[in-house]
Amino acid sequence: MEHVLLEVLADEVKIGNRPNNTFRTSSFNRVSSVIFEKFNVECSSDHVEHHLRTVKTAWGIIAQLQDKSGFGWDDNMKMIIASPTVYTDHVQGHPTHEKYLNKKIEMYDEIALVVNKDRAKGNFAKSFNDVDLEARPAIEPINSDDDVATEDISKDKNVGKQSASSSETSAQPRRHRKRGQKLGQVADAITRLTWDRLNVQALHDELMKTEGFDVAFLGEAFDYLVEQEWLGKAFMAKSINLRRIWLEDFSSHKF
């Protein structure tokens, strides 16, 4: 029934029945009438207006995610894209946002029209290379600054051998901790670089073993995902079921 509500209200906007960006009661009554005709369900104009507020709340979340650093936007599929790491981190803090990530947003254009928001195509088409660069923390290079500090202590003529030995011993755990932290940062950077690079052969292999689609169609999908590299990365991060949903949507749109 939500689809009917959005379809009717979007049509009301197109024919000019939303003066001053506010729907008339007649528009809500039209929605109620169509719902009754299609589903034989009584629905008052108050119910329609209440559900419209729910739609506006959902749109607020969508717009927030689109503008958030670390997320991409596929305008063809109407989908907010997140890498596995970004997805996991965000959903842990905002479980209710899961349904908006890496899934097609049904009737996106109608929602945007009904809530009177213009999300121009391409405004949110950020590649994952751009996204990760914004979100990536600076990586400190591994160097010998700590060793130099220790050498300075040992060379200080005003410090006795015993004192220098004690200082060097106490400095070793600190050096090890700092080196461990730096190595951890390097490992994280390598993981991010791996995500930045699309494994074309792995993408091809995963596509070709997907059942229910002919080889020619899978070849078209492969070419598209390689051309739109960040979508190819997102495809590889999806579960088998989500991949099938994406392919079915791609088949129906035939970009």
Provide the fold topology.
Elements (H helix, E strand, L loop, with lengths): L1 H13 L10 H15 L5 H23 L4 E3 L4 E3 L2 H10 L14 H7 L13 H8 L9 H11 L5 H36 L3 H9 L6 H13 L1 H9 L2 H14 L2
Antiparallel strand pairs: 1-2
Number of domains: 3
Helical content band: 55-70%
Distance between the termini: 28 Å
| Low-confidence parts | 119-155, 189-195
What is the chain-wise order of helices and strands?
HHHEEHHHHHHHHH
Computed over alpha carbons, the radius of gyration is 27 Å
Number of strands: 2
For the largest beta-sheet, the strand count, sense and barrel status come to: 2 strands, antiparallel
* Class from helix and strand fractions: mainly alpha
The gross shape turns out to be extended
Quote the average pLDDT: 76
Strand content bin:
under 5%
Annotation field: number of helices: 12
Give the neighbour order of strands across the main sheet: 1-2
Notes on the protein architecture:
The chain has 255 residues and is an all-alpha fold. It folds into 3 domains: 2-126, no CATH class; 145-196; 200-253. 66% of the residues lie in helices and 2% in strands. It contains 12 helices and 2 strands, in the order αααββααααααααα. A two-stranded antiparallel ribbon has the order 1-2. A hairpin with a 4-residue loop joins strand 1 (72-74) and strand 2. Helix 1 packs across helix 2 (25-39), helix 1 (2-14) packs across helix 5 and helix 2 packs across helix 3 (45-67). The longest helix is centred in the last third of the chain and has 36 residues, at 161-196. It is extended and about 75 Å long. Residues 119-155 and 189-195 have low confidence and may be disordered.
